[in-house]
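## retry 2 of 3
previous attempt timed out at serialization; input unchanged, resubmitting
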Amino acid sequence: MSTTRIVAVAGVGLWSPRLPSWVAACDVLAGRAAPLEVPQPRAAAALLAPTERRRAPDTVCIALEVAARACDMAGIAPDTLPSVFASTHGDLAISDYMCATLATTPALCSPTKFHNSVHNAASGYWTIGTQCVQPSTALSSWTHTFANGLLEALVQALADDTPVLYVAYDVEARGPLAQVTPSHGLLAAALVLVPVRGGAQRPVATLAWDVGDLDAPVPPPTVPPAWRSAVPDNAMIPCLPLLAAIAAGTPAQLACPLSAGCALRLSVDAA
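## retry succeeded, writing output
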């Protein structure tokens, strides 16, 4: 087992159609409010210019929405942050369109759709919208995507002694792909991670973490009952146990599988 490291969570973002902000999610978890009865159809993604916002797909809109809110909470300028963007599937609606079009009428393939089909589309829009020239990573690791993306962000924060933005998101599966890659609704989360030695002025929580063998199978992620009716069975649902622990403000121990035999082990403490 590796030596335990500690990173502060300086900012958090969360978006789903019925929990459209981190504050709203915390209020629902604490019993102070109910989820929205009428789901929001789309995230605002306010940092994009109107023209870009109109043609940006859902993956981009929800990723940029939570990224901006996490940076706002942390009080850190977005253009100063290296970033890690993680998505299990990328944009499955666009993938379905691309496959169908190439199989039937390839000459009609939309350049804009093709432009948005790449896995790093959200990170690209983010760096353009914030004018950020810091390094950006886009990754996928199938059902272990959230944990591997988080590990990448944690390692970067400590190795480079700098705050790092981590964004994780997935959208609805469409067409034949939904048969083999099920995902429902929209879900995105973001964390601004700051090395403790680098100092977070008002951290939301601290994460002590290490990587070790997965001694026993980890059960499917448990969504708090207060969130269950509001959050779809999205491919990024593994992010919710960590977010729930941060929102509750109580110590928690989590094991997030990185592979069949390895796990990212987290000790969550309220700051």
